[in-house]
């Protein structure tokens, strides 16, 4: 069984957040680094919801 929408969107948020965090590091922007980390956490949570839904639907 493949990934569901929550897993895919969650993984995308994690990648986007990591990029944002790295851009913040390169530019010296703590604000962007923090926003990136928050986005990564949101993505991990959403991916977890997707995995839980998949287990429940089995």
From TrEMBL:
InterPro entries membership: CsbD, YjbJ_sf
Region: Disordered, residue numbers: 1-58
CsbD-like domain residues: 6-58
Gene3D superfamilies xrefs: YjbJ
Pfam families assigned: CsbD
Biased composition range(s): Basic and acidic residues: 1-10, 18-45
Family the entry assigns: Belongs to the UPF0337 (CsbD) family.
Name of the protein this chain belongs to: General stress protein CsbD
Lineage: Archaea, Methanobacteriati, Methanobacteriota, Stenosarchaea group, Methanomicrobia
